[in-house]
Design goal:
Elements: H1 9-14, H2 30-33, E1 34-35, H3 40-61, H4 69-92, E2 99-100, E3 106-109, E4 121-124, H5 127-149, H6 161-182, H7 199-223, H8 228-250, H9 261-288, H10 292-307, H11 313-318, H12 320-345, H13 410-414, H14 440-445, H15 448-462
Antiparallel strand pairs: 1-2, 3-4
Helix pairs in contact: 3-4, 4-5, 5-6, 6-7, 7-8, 8-9, 9-10, 10-12
InterPro entries: BRO1_dom, BRO1_sf, pH-resp_palC
Family: Belongs to the palC family.
Organism: Hondaea fermentalgiana
């Protein structure tokens, strides 16, 4: 098993995480807000949801101490079925007479905006806001668990690479579900909503997580002794995917100027950095194949690309030390390769346009996420009891289309419309030996445990 002694400057660069904070929220009592002659089962559900939300609040505040992201994941997983059951039940009880004693208002701060704006509260009176927000909170907690597993102060962290990559892929799967399934069903979302519930931003964050998972997969492959040519292809795949992510970020429009800086700035740096590292490994592969002149050319290109990186203030603090250490390490190897070639091999060094750069390969994938299965409970009046009309003064405004569904306007405080997309479905097909979209040579060159991860993902996608 690889130990931390095997981690060089390249490893430290690949394993360097930014840190996402944890949003905060205000306490809320479902049973104190949703009134009327509710069924006994509905009353019990509201009470349980309130208690579970309080547990989540405890997890994300930790009494002012350092938040353990594992507790946040567990708290969301505990609360999600209940709040989703309320949401689903409201959807099924569209004609029930339900009284709101005061607006059902959820308040959250955002950690996807710039740090000087992270105390601002975003309030919304629809259930889908709460459901989507806590899912994004859970996804970011998975990211922070991965970061914790690979913390430089943690002993034997190299052994945690597989687990950390899995946490990132879980987070990405949740974010993909939120952006592709949940948020598109939100009827008339407010313009002033936090990035955590903006479909395009959530989709970008999912891709950010997947790219980080690819970085860890590359490092795992290196430690397992994967051929340098295969590592180079994995890094080229990361470079291309990160470059595409830069385009996705730019297409977000004006909201980009409000976002947490690493989301906006890191993909471009990672694209350049991973391409440079790919050149380093392709140089190693050329040297192994008895092509010392080509090896010198590849390493020269790697050094020049790392030298050309321009650091923003945020990236200067986050990644400059690791990039510089990797640059020095690669530069030292370049000098060794060049001296060997000049004194021993006497092989010509090809120009860069003559170098054979292979296509990249990207194997990290999001883990499919499914909402918990819940049965609706009746929010109507128990048999033999009289209906109570909603308090029109406290109920949210009716929808603009004049719908009378539920007191106060059903869709205005539930927030969803349209049919659900089929959950957990996938169009993937093909042979298990080489899943579609994967470079066969790269797949064959991966360590057995990484191959098993790829095959397991493929099999899961077929269910």
């Amino acid at each position: 098993m690889a130990s931390d002694e095997d981690l060089d400057a390249v490893a430290e660069l690949l394993m360097k995480f930014t840190e996402f904070g944890t949003p905060t929220t205000k306490p809320l009592s479902f049973e104190a807000i949703i009134g009327g002659n509710l069924s006994h089962e509905a009353q019990e559900l509201l009470q349980v949801a309130t208690q579970q939300r309080e547990t989540l609040l405890d997890g994300i505040t930790n009494m002012g101490g350092r938040v353990d992201p594992r507790n946040v994941v567990a708290a969301v997983e505990n609360y999600l079925p209940s709040v989703y059951k309320i949401t689903h039940s409201m959807e099924q009880s569209a004609t029930a007479q339900i009284r709101l004693n005061k607006p059902l208002e959820f308040s959250w701060t955002s950690v996807l905006v710039k740090k000087n704006k992270q105390r601002k509260e975003y309030k919304c009176q629809v259930l889908v806001y709460e459901v989507c927000f806590i899912l994004t909170v859970q996804a970011m907690a998975h990211y922070n668990v991965a970061r914790m597993l690979l913390d430089p102060e943690r002993p034997n962290r190299a052994a945690n690479l597989v687990a950390a990559a899995k946490e990132l892929r879980k987070g990405a799967g949740i974010l993909e579900y939120v952006s592709q399934v949940m948020l598109p069903r939100w009827v008339n979302p407010p313009e002033n909503r936090p990035p955590e519930v903006m479909p395009a931003v959530v989709a970008v964050l999912a891709e950010y997580f997947v790219c980080m998972a690819q970085r860890l997969t590359v490092q795992q492959a290196i430690l397992k002794g994967t051929p340098a040519s295969t590592v180079g292809k994995l890094l080229l795949g990361l470079s291309e995917r990160s470059h595409n992510l830069v385009g996705s970020v730019r297409r977000l429009g004006p909201v980009v100027d409000t976002l947490f800086e690493p989301i906006v700035e890191e993909p471009a740096l990672v694209s350049t950095m991973s391409h440079a590292l790919a050149m380093k490994f392709l140089g190693d592969a050329a040297k192994d194949k008895g092509k010392p002149g080509e090896a010198v050319a590849f390493l020269s290109l790697a050094v020049d690309q790392l030298n050309g990186i321009i650091f923003s203030p945020t990236m200067d603090k986050l990644l400059r030390p690791e990039v510089e250490a990797a640059r020095v390490e690669i530069l030292d190897k370049y000098h060794v390769y060049r001296e060997d070639n000049e004194k021993i091999y006497f092989e010509g060094v090809p120009t860069r346009d003559r170098l054979n750069v292979p296509a990249g390969s990207f194997i990290a994938t999001a883990v499919d996420f499914e909402m918990p299965e819940v049965d609706a409970v009746a929010f109507g009046t128990p048999p033999g009891e009289q209906h109570h009309e909603a308090d029109a003064q406290n109920a949210p405004a009716a929808p603009a289309n004049g719908s009378k569904r539920a007191s106060g306007g059903f869709s205005s405080w539930f927030g969803m419309g349209g049919s659900k997309k089929k959950e957990g479905a996938s169009s993937k097909s093909g042979r298990l030996e080489a899943p579609p979209g994967y470079d066969k040579e790269v797949f064959d060159g991966l360590p057995p445990d990484v191959q098993q991860e790829v095959i397991a993902d493929y099999e899961a996608s077929r269910k």
